[in-house]
Amino acid sequence: MSAHVLDGRRYAKELREALLADVRELAEHATRPGLATVVAGDSYPAHAYERRVRTLARQLGIHYVCEELPADVAEADAIAVVGKLGADPRVSGILILRPLPPQVSEAALYRALDPLKDIEAVHPVNAGLLALGRPRFVPSTPASVFHLLDRYLVESGRDPAAVYQRSNVVVVGRSANVGKPAITLGMERGATVISCDAHSYSSGLLYEHTKRADVLIVATGVAGLISAEHVKDGVIAIDVGINPVVNPNGETVRLVGDLDFSSVVTRAEAVTPVPGGVGPITDVWLLRNTVTAARRALSMAITR
Ligand code: NDP
Fold first, then answer.
1. Which domain range does residue 212 map to?
2. Which of the listed residues 145, 197, 282 should we mutate to test ligand 1's pocket, taking the one with most ligand atoms within 8 A of CB?
3. Runs of H (alpha helix) within the chain
4. Distance between CA atoms of 20 and 10, rounded to whole angstroms?
5. What is the CATH number of the domain that holds 215?
6. Is 54 marked as binding a ligand?
7. 72 with 181, same domain?
8. Residue 24: how many CB atoms within 10 A of its CB?
């Protein structure tokens, strides 16, 4: 058996076309959405992601600004930058890229965000609304995971709601921006959700849980953590991980996921590749949330 390999680029292209129409419609109201990113230090994945969203924003005609902060930036200065972006009328959405340098607290920076521009729902108010099932924004990565799942299920002739309600959805990784919101989105759909983390691994329980998954979502940053022997036949496996493979000179030569793709593909019903799975959808979804924020700001201005 060989799995359906889910083509994230195709879904991303569809979303991009719809988004372009939304941007044009906003332009008719003299509104241009704007995205601001904040990057501190020289993390390779953070800068690679920043470059991708910069290119996409420009292609879509979305205003874009990147605040590049030095690795030794003081926390107060980083907070001031986030505050400044909150007050900038050209900026509709703000993304704070991780990792942050150790002297800058993630929580402190997230609290400094204008909640109406917090497109990744990391401000405590937005994280709370999401957990309550009343999201202001759905963070781009878990939103993309479920978009991909929904589209695949519909295209294969199934009703996603019915599938989730009789599925074990196992989420490996519980970060604030990926794992936890994915758990919430699975619960909202009525799935039986199991959350696994590094403790599940060290206690030897991880693979007991992954073998029960009908839908497996893996977001750990551990290359090849899950292989064919850790999943059941017919699993739908979504790989969020992006792990650089480096050569002896320390240069990144390619990217791999958290799944051992070549073995999981032999057992799964469907699987996402890395690259080309969740990642391309996430990029567009971030801009989609930016456009949503701009549209809301426009309607607030009209009703004021
Ligand atoms: P974090 O480092 O914030 O979280 C990793 C999570 O994985 C933690 O909850 C950790 O558990 C868990 N974990 C670590 N090791 C194991 C293990 N051996 N077994 C089980 N669980 C483990 O990472 P992120 O959530 O931000 O990102 C995860 C991956 O997804 C990365 O590769 C990242 O690059 C990628 N990513 C991809 C995106 C995309 O669009 N495709 C977007 C965002 C991230 P604990 O909490 O117990 O420490």
1. 140-279
2. 197
3. 8-27, 44-60, 75-87, 106-111, 124-131, 140-155, 160-165, 179-188, 198-202, 206-210, 261-264, 278-303
4. 16
5. 3.40.50.720
6. no
7. no
8. 11
Q: State in Å: Cα 215 to ligand 1 middle.
A: 17
Confidence band of 302 (pLDDT split at 50, 70, 90): confident
Token pair for 126: 């937005």
ipTM of the complex: 0.99
The verdict on residue 67 lying in a domain is yes
Partner residues linked to 64 by β-bridges: 35
- Please report the atom of ligand 1 found closest to the CA of residue 225: 18
Q: Please give the model's pTM, rounded to 2 decimal places.
A: 0.96
Cα-to-centroid distance, 274 and ligand 1 (Å): 15
Which pLDDT score is estimated for 1? 65
CB of 166 closer than 6 angstroms to any ligand 1 atom = no
Residue 259 is given by DSSP the state B
168 and 104 fall within a common domain: no
**In this predicted model, what pLDDT tens digit does every residue of 40-62 receive, in sequence order?**
999 888 998 999 999 999 999 99
> Which residues touch 221 (CB under 8 Å, ≥6 apart)?
173, 241, 242, 243, 258
In this structure, the number of other CB atoms found within 10 A of the CB of residue 115 comes to 16
